[in-house]
Design a protein that fits this description.
single chain, 1034 residues, alpha/beta, ten-stranded mixed sheet, four-stranded parallel sheet
């Protein structure tokens, strides 16, 4: 068989001597200008330009009319800086979903979006101010705050444009000319409307409770904005002397805390009635020790030994048990009494107290912890009845500085402005030592909340914020306007009292936001399934949603609050008036949210119906997670802005459409979470049907997350410049994205090698199909067995590929296609059929049948690859069919059921087993240099196994083994035969082929020269050349 590939030259015929005819000119060697070297960095931008010129996105929408919709709603990246490899992973994965669903027959319309508000952009503008020596604007001045907001807007616009081009360069197809932006006027108007629905349905309230506060960013943070990192804290064991109760007055309740700076805010001690406690006396201790002989400590029995060991106590005695009833009746003295903390410290029974660590008691500062706040509020009446002041002190300001409500420590810093540790802890510890109320100190390295933006620790700080209630039963079932952007839209101008809950419009069972969200989690498909448990736990255990931020660049909290009792309103009531709400939304739609901060805004929206002097206009802005959580409202539910998404009728409502959200697994606490709460609070349902998550990117060793700060980052821009976007796309599709994904130069190289093999297979098919025209088509019934086998294999691969794409399992697609293309096709079918394709005459049914099947294989494989190798598939498709129609307008081909032939496939499994033994024997002979190519051999194949023999007895063994001859012998193999242990009953003895070498096909046969006109050719090759010459024009 003549060797040759693509348009490569061949040395066929050179063995005939100097001046002999070049028989390679008579071979049907592959011909294509589809290059072997991809040159993707140069080719991909050319393809992008063609897509843009033809407006491929519009063509896709036209072709999709009337199909069921599959909407992947984009989780917005932040418009701040160039994209990194995490962005590339995310956007490519989304594009794989969108393109594959489109080719599965859906209208898969992708509208990209950007998150444009928030602190990082404010920081950038403030940095510019500082660089120019300018002061930060006075945000109470209308002109100044809107000028600042305008600079933020322009900054975001710049980066939206940059990122748009970078995302397009990845091959992502979407509505890039009309993306959604959270800062667009239409979006800001809708976000305000969504917030006002929460005001109307009673879930929005202003309260004073501890929130996670960033000293660096000077704002409250939501759970989604916090990450946990290792942190070293000061730990102290502190004495609270017993002031009253049934225990000795010289006893002390011992608490342990890693936040000594919170002790000025202490107002109680929590214990648990489920824990056993005892009274312990120190009987021996070193001189000068803080814990002294004779001291009596109340401790959890389980922890007493550890506490006393930490206190360097040498020996001690347990005097008695201390029951919960005794503890509940105790009153302690604050350990810093001498500095002005002269008030009773009660003991409260709390479920949050454990004896896992510490002392069995929890120092309770209601201004600095969620559990502390909850138990303090729960005991308000009982505390007041005991004459205890229940006021929660504000001991720390926005800068992390202790206030005058922390006497003795005013001006001390918990954290410095840059987030580093301040001097408050040391000051408190010294004061405790001076008062004789500390028994031990140490340091503890533990997981502690940090801002995910600044990477600095946060503090829990009591501050007035706006919240959305999780457990207030005001949501009716079903909610009015459910799923249509309607929700609860009351029109009565009534102040919102904290209790009782307002009645639901239209009646129905009252449900809490938590109830609805947990129910909707169950109604959603989570991919992978572990996502359901993760978000379920987060929703089940989360506190009320803090939605306010003390910043300038964002959508404001568009509510008015009564300053005083007047006209039937009580101080603190939220104004609920649909006319006012409509005026605000209309203004935002025309002017953007800047309208809220403009001079005279309160009068504009309130007068003449209300006197602005009686109403506080809230100046806080919304948490950006509320912005992004509202995207479903201003994208999926806004047919005017996004007509291509109009008319979504979800499967859950009896329709055929589905909505997917796709982001990293951290978004169970971020976008998935806020979108779920926002939609459940306004529509009584989740905004999505399917949620797909991916992991984070690690370095090649899988040890560290990839990041610039660690110096292990490899940018997508650099990879595209050197290797191409399709390499990144193949990497994403090949990875197990359900977990963390490794990435680095070696992995890029591995993906490039895998790509090269796939491309070579496409290239070879294009070269072979150079000779195919429709009139050469052979009906299936007339095809040789091998061709019918390949059609059967196509149906098997089609089922695997479709199932994998439908399950968003792109790794499964690659796992099906790569071995099919590299092994079934290149190493098996194409290798066998090269001789027929290159050497058989034009009229050969075998050759025509092979071309017929290769045409089908090319169409299937290229479309199956298109969602993954978007550029390469487009390039190959254009080489085959011309550039008039993009491959991305195709759907996956529907293959005839008649192509399936399980019996034939079972037979050929046996044939391939025998072939493996033959090729193994040939490799041994080649390695020993007893033969050069396999065409020098004529193996004798011994097949004693009846089933295997039946499978191969009507097969041309020489053809499938690519030898010049082969003999089948139905006996046991001789001892010297080559065998394989997993193919019993088969042995091969390799013998050299008899005859002469054909100068055209290189086969060694006994009929070379039988045609006197072609003395150097076999009879088959001579007939092929005669037919070729007869077809040539005279």
């Amino acid at each position: 068989m003549a060797k040759g590939n693509g348009g490569a030259k061949t040395d066929a015929g050179t063995n005939a001597g100097e001046g002999a005819r070049d028989w390679s000119q008579t071979l049907n060697l592959p011909q294509t200008d589809f290059p072997m070297r991809a040159g993707l960095p140069q080719k991909e931008p050319e393809i992008l330009m063609r897509w843009q010129e033809r407006d491929l996105y519009r063509e896709l929408r036209e072709a999709s009319k009337g199909r069921p919709k599959f909407v992947l709603h984009d989780g917005p990246p932040y418009a701040n800086g160039n994209i990194h490899i995490g962005h590339a992973l995310n956007k490519i994965l989304k594009d794989l979903v969108v393109k594959s669903q489109q080719m599965l027959g859906f209208d898969s319309n992708y509208v990209p979006g950007w998150d444009c508000h928030g602190l990082p952009i404010e920081w950038k503008i403030e940095e510019q101010y500082r660089a120019k020596g300018r002061e930060k604007p006075d945000f109470s001045d209308a002109a100044a705050i809107n000028a600042f907001r305008d600079e933020c807007r322009k900054f975001a616009e710049k980066w939206v444009d940059v990122q748009r081009e970078e995302f397009k360069r990845l091959g992502v197809i979407g509505d890039w000319d009309n993306p959604y932006l959270t800062m667009s006027h239409a979006a800001e108007a809708t976000i305000a409307r969504e917030l006002m629905k929460f005001a109307a349905n009673g879930l929005l309230y202003r309260g004073s409770k501890p929130v996670m506060w960033s000293v660096v960013e000077k704002t409250a943070l939501a759970e989604a904005e916090v990450e946990y990192q290792d942190y070293q804290s000061d730990a102290v064991w502190v004495k609270f002397p017993v002031r009253a109760g049934s225990l000795p007055s010289d006893a002390d309740v011992i608490i342990w805390t890693t936040t000594p700076w919170t002790l000025p805010g202490n107002r109680a001690i929590s214990f648990s009635s489920k824990i056993e406690y005892g009274l312990y006396e120190v009987t021996a201790a070193p001189d000068g020790n803080w814990a002294k002989v004779g001291d009596k400590y109340i401790l959890a029995d389980k922890l007493a030994a550890d506490v006393l060991k930490s206190s360097k106590v040498e020996s001690y005695e347990r005097l008695s048990a201390v029951g919960a009833d005794v503890l509940a009746g105790l009153v302690a003295q604050h350990p810093l009494k001498s500095l002005g903390y002269d008030f009773d410290v009660p003991l409260l029974d709390g479920d949050h107290v454990t004896d896992d660590t510490g002392t069995g008691f929890v120092h309770t500062a209601p201004g600095h912890g969620a559990d502390d706040y909850i138990i303090w509020i729960a005991n308000q009446k009982a505390l007041r009845d005991r004459g205890i002041d229940t006021t929660i002190p504000f001991t720390v300001d926005a800068d992390g500085v202790l206030t005058k409500e922390a006497p003795g420590f005013t001006g001390k810093r918990v954290l410095k402005e840059n987030g580093d540790k301040g001097d408050a802890n040391d000051a408190v510890i010294k004061a405790l030592a001076d008062a004789g109320n500390i028994i031990a100190r140490g340091r503890l390295k533990h997981s502690y909340p940090h801002s995910w933006r600044s990477k600095k620790p946060v503090i829990f700080r009591n501050t007035p914020q706006w919240f959305i209630a999780m457990d207030k039963g005001v949501l009716p079932s079903p909610l009015v306007g459910e799923g249509k952007g309607g929700g609860d839209s009351r029109t009565a101008a009534v102040g919102l009292p904290p209790t009782p809950n307002p009645s639901p419009p239209g009646g129905g069972e009252l449900r809490t936001l938590r109830d609805v969200a947990l129910s909707e989690i169950k109604a959603t498909e989570w991919v992978p399934e572990t996502g359901e448990n993760r978000i379920n736990g987060m929703i089940a255990n989360r506190p009320d949603w803090v939605v306010s931020r003390q910043r300038a660049w964002g959508v404001p909290i568009t509510v008015f609050v009564a300053k005083r009792d007047h006209d039937g309103f009580s101080e603190g009531d939220i104004l609920r008036d649909e006319a006012v709400n409509a005026a605000i939304a209309d203004a935002f739609a025309k002017e953007g949210a800047d309208a809220w901060f403009a001079e005279g805004a309160a009068k504009r929206f309130l007068a003449p119906k209300y006197d602005p002097a009686n109403w506080e206009q809230v100046r806080d802005v919304l948490d950006v997670w509320f912005d992004s959580g509202s995207t479903h409202a201003f994208v999926l539910d806004d047919p005017e802005q996004f007509p291509g998404l109009a008319g979504i009728h979800r499967v859950r409502d009896g329709g055929t459409d589905r909505v997917m959200y796709l982001e990293g697994s951290d978004q169970h606490r971020g976008w998935f979470h806020s979108s779920l709460l926002e939609s459940c609070g306004t529509r009584g349902r989740a905004p999505y049907d399917v949620v797909l998550t991916h992991g984070f990117i690690l370095d090649e060793k899988g040890e560290d997350k990839m990041s610039k700060s660690k110096g292990n980052a490899l940018s997508p821009q650099d990879v595209m410049k050197t290797a191409g976007a399709d390499i990144l796309r193949l990497w994403v599709a090949s990875a197990d994205t359900t977990g963390d994904i490794r990435f680095g130069p070696a992995i890029v190289q591995s993906a490039s090698e895998a790509y090269r093999k796939l491309r070579n297979t496409l290239r070879w098919m294009l070269g072979a199909l150079h000779y195919f025209t429709p009139e050469l088509t052979v009906p299936r019934a007339e095809l040789p067995e091998l061709e019918r086998l390949m059609l059967h294999r196509l149906t098997e691969i089609d089922a695997e590929v479709r199932a994998a794409y439908a399950a968003y399992d792109f790794r499964g697609v690659v796992a099906a296609l790569a071995p099919f293309m590299n092994t079934d096709l290149s190493s098996f079918y194409f290798d066998i059929r090269k001789d027929a394709l290159y050497c058989e005459p034009y009229s050969s049914v075998k050759r025509r049948g092979a071309l017929t099947v290769i045409d089908q294989i090319f169409g299937c494989v290229t479309t199956w690859l298109a969602p993954i190798l978007s550029f390469t598939a487009e390039e190959a498709w254009g080489h085959r069919y011309g550039g008039d129609r993009s491959i991305h307008l195709e759907t996956f081909p529907e293959l005839p059921e008649a192509w399936r032939d399980a019996a034939l496939a079972e037979k050929w499994e046996r044939v391939r087993d025998v072939r493996r033994v033959v090729t193994g024997a040939l490799e041994i002979e080649r390695a020993a240099k007893r033969i050069g190519s396999s065409l020098e051999a004529a193996p004798e194949v011994f097949v004693a196994d009846a089933a295997l023999r039946e499978a191969v007895e009507d097969i041309d063994l020489a053809e499938i083994a690519i030898t010049s001859g082969a003999t089948l012998t139905a006996t046991d193999a001789p001892e010297e035969a080559f065998t394989l242990p997993d193919v019993p009953g088969v042995g091969v003895v390799v013998r050299r082929a008899d005859g002469r070498k054909c100068a055209r096909s290189w086969r060694i046969t006994n009929d070379v020269g039988s045609d006197p006109d072609y003395p150097d050719l076999s009879a088959r090759d001579a007939a092929a050349v005669r037919e070729l010459e007869a077809r040539r024009p005279a």
